[in-house]
Design a protein that fits this description.
The complex is a heterodimer of chains A (327) and B (306). Chain A is 72% helix and 2% strand. Chain A has 327 residues and is mainly alpha-helical. Chain A has a single domain (3-320), classed as Orthogonal Bundle (ABC transporter involved in vitamin B12 uptake, BtuC). In chain A, the strands form two sheets. In chain A, strands 1-2 form a two-stranded antiparallel sheet. In chain A, strands 3-4 form a two-stranded antiparallel sheet. Chain B is mainly alpha-helical and 306 residues long. In chain B, strands 1-2 form a two-stranded antiparallel sheet. The chains are: A mainly alpha (327), B mainly alpha (306). The A-B interface holds A 51, 57, 59, 119-120, 122-123, 125-127, 129-131, 133-135, 137-138, 141-142, 144-148, 254, 258, 261-262, 265, 269, 295-298, 300-302, 304-305, 307-309, 312 and B 31, 37, 84, 87, 93-95, 97-99, 101-106, 108-110, 112-113, 222-223, 226, 229-230, 232-233, 237, 276, 279-280, 282-284, 287-288, 290-291, 294-295, 298-300.
């Protein structure tokens, strides 16, 4: 077995074993902490699809994270206050059902990604970075200034949304939902990267001119990748909102975009499991360094700087070697 | 709505735009000459504001505070360039984004550690307090007028420097062909450090000027940084002229949008709804402007098409 495969397996096994151990010794806080890592990992996997596979440096993925969050917030808010979202000839009610919320989160963030991507992908390189960042800021200010859903204060939801017969307020059961989603998303991304589309996208990243020469349209490939990427991150946003039972404009902030990118980089760009390792490492650092000092972001910054300057390829690059697998 | 209010708001927009130009000019110079995207530019803005607030608090002199902001931001810029940024010129944009994002974290938390979480206040000096009468009976804040004039003077100085001085020639040559001017004997690494320090000083200066209107606090730089990105995306990355036009467009759109959009919606909506819809749209106006420019000119108004 290659070292990367071993690392992937160990990581996923640890993410299964640790919460179970925490459950056994009755430490619900540690379960919730791991849930955060898993949800962040899903967001990172989403970004990695555009960033690692398509080479699209999006500094605005908080848009999709936030849209997912607000999809949950708005639907659940209307359901808990028994007011319809739209009340005209067409009546749309809120819902407390997780599958419906996920569906809405994924669809709305995919539509947003289609619109933003169609605009932003007209440019490339450093323009693309700045434009995605700017559009994310636009959503942030919109969320702050739109008073109907809490404005700056955000929205609180009293009880987590429901899924079948599960008690979603029980940390370990909610963790099981998130972990399952992580596995599903990882499997999807793994398959998609090896599909004809994924190969064409990867080729477009490496050499646009050649891909064009064989009759593919890079713009279209990038756009599809961006939509898939946004949809996955939107799903993570809905889960994150459910985890906290709270959404606020912070989910749209540029710091959130930066953090999602940090998950990807800490783990290793372009590796399917990279964002998982990155998110786990981030939560670990936050927990350990946050305990040491209130100014733990200084250390995080120093570590990040060290990774960028001296350990390119992130954690996976350090442990599993530089070469990204070709199989 | 009176014409006086409109003109007053237009002046506010001009003042905002001039300050955005100081930020955008540095960013666009650094990108044009070194090909570097610098997220930490907002931190340099913050450093300038804090240095000014500290010096003004200690000496009571506003002019000394402005000098301090220039010097402190330039020193911070040189340090950052020599220690970190220099290693990033040959890297791809992703590495630059991350390294400078890391710098933001270090600068922000470092400042919070040194000065605490509470905002500092930088008072305008007495000789700039109060208002001034402009023609047509417009009463306008003297300090804001001072910002506009100083900002325009700095902009003029920058244009003069780039067009007529030896350094300016080297900067323009650097934008065209880095290797070539190195081969012609210009000390490239000194030029890079100088350009970075210049950009940093402009950002720090802007921070100090704005610090006297708003409060000086950690995290004040990043919203301005993102607006400066919008400015140079609209103007075209690498173009100082583009940065000036973009900055004025953004400043005026933002300020006038906040004034006019709610009133526009009041024409056909209830006042309460019009205010909230207008305010929401106004907060998005500059980004919509950016999207509009991108549709027609993907590389900005004055950007090269390459």
């Amino acid at each position: 077995m290659r070292r990367e495969t071993t690392l992937n397996a160990a990581l996923m096994a640890a993410l299964l074993a640790f919460p179970l151990w925490a459950y056994a010794v009755d430490e619900p806080f540690l379960i919730t902490l791991t849930t955060r890592a898993v949800v962040f990992a899903i967001a990172g996997v989403g970004l990695n699809f555009a960033l690692g596979l398509g080479g699209l440096v999006s500094f605005g993925h908080a848009v999709f994270f936030g849209i997912g969050g607000y999809a949950m917030g708005i639907l659940a808010f209307h359901a808990q206050s028994y007011t319809p979202i739209i009340d005209g000839w067409l009546v749309i009610e809120g819902t407390k059902s997780m599958p419906l919320i996920w569906l809405v989160a994924v669809i709305v963030s995919a539509i947003a990604a289609l619109g933003l991507g169609a605009l932003s992908l007209r440019t490339s390189g450093v323009y693309f970075i700045m434009i995605t960042l700017a559009f994310a800021q636009m959503f942030y200010f919109f969320a702050i200034s739109w008073p109907a859903y809490g404005g700056e204060d955000g929205l609180s939801i009293y009880v987590r949304n429901g899924l079948g017969g599960l008690n979603t307020m029980d940390p370990i059961q909610f963790y099981a939902i998130c972990y399952t989603w992580l596995v599903v998303v990882l499997f999807f991304v793994y398959r998609a990267a090896r599909s004809p589309f994924g190969l064409a996208l990867s080729a477009a990243r490496q050499n646009e001119a050649r891909v064009q020469a064989v009759g593919q349209v890079p713009y279209r490939l990038y756009l599809v990748a961006y939509v898939i990427s946004g949809a996955i991150t939107g799903l993570a946003g809905a889960l994150f909102a459910d985890l906290n039972r709270f959404v606020s404009p912070t989910m749209f902030s540029w710091q959130t975009s930066g953090e999602i990118m940090v998950f990807v980089i800490l783990g290793g760009v372009g590796r399917v499991f990279g964002p998982v390792a990155g998110a786990v490492l981030f939560i670990l650092l936050e927990h350990v360094l946050g305990g040491l000092s209130a100014y733990w972001h200084v250390y995080l910054g120093a570590i990040l700087l060290g990774v960028v300057l001296f350990a390119r390829g992130g954690l996976f690059g350090l442990i599993a070697g530089r070469e990204v697998a070709h199989d | 709505m009176s014409a006086v209010l409109l003109i007053e708001q237009a002046l506010n927009g001009l003042q905002f735009g001039v300050m955005l130009f100081l930020m955008g000019a540095g960013l666009t110079l650094i990108f044009g000459v070194m090909g570097l995207i610098n997220l930490a530019h907002g931190s340099l803005y913050m450093v300038g504001a804090f240095a000014a607030a500290a010096v003004a608090g200690a000496t009571g002199s506003f002019l000394l505070a402005l000098v301090a902001s220039l010097v402190a931001a330039a020193i911070a810029g040189v340090l950052v360039e020599v220690l970190v940024i220099r290693r990033l010129y040959d890297r791809d944009h992703l590495d630059q984004v991350l390294a400078t994002f890391a710098l933001i974290l270090i600068f922000s938390e470092g400042t919070r550690w040194a000065f605490g979480s509470f905002p500092l206040f930088l008072d305008r000096p007495e000789w700039l307090a109060g208002t001034v009468m402009l023609p047509f009976g417009i009463e306008y804040s003297l300090y804001r007028l001072f910002i506009i004039l100083v900002g325009l003077a700095v902009a003029a100085g920058l244009f003069w420097m780039i067009a007529y001085t030896r350094i300016g020639i080297q900067i323009r040559a650097g934008e065209n062909d880095r290797e070539m001017i190195g081969a012609l004997g210009v000390n490239i690494s000194a030029l890079y450090t100088l350009v970075f320090a210049l950009g940093a000083a402009l950002a720090g200066f802007a921070g100090a000027m704005i610090g006297a209107i708003q409060s000086v606090q950690v995290g004040m730089g990043e919203p301005v940084l993102i607006l400066a990105f919008v400015v140079i995306v609209i103007g075209g990355i690498g173009s100082i002229k583009g940065a000036l036009v973009g900055a004025l467009l953004v400043g005026l759109t933002d300020t006038l949008g906040r004034l006019l959009l709610p009133q526009f919606f009041e024409l056909f909506m209830e006042p309460a709804a019009a205010t909230s819809v207008g305010a929401s749209l106004a907060s998005m106006a500059i980004y919509i402007l950016m999207a509009g420019v991108l549709l027609f000119k993907p590389s900005g108004l004055f950007g090269s098409t390459a």
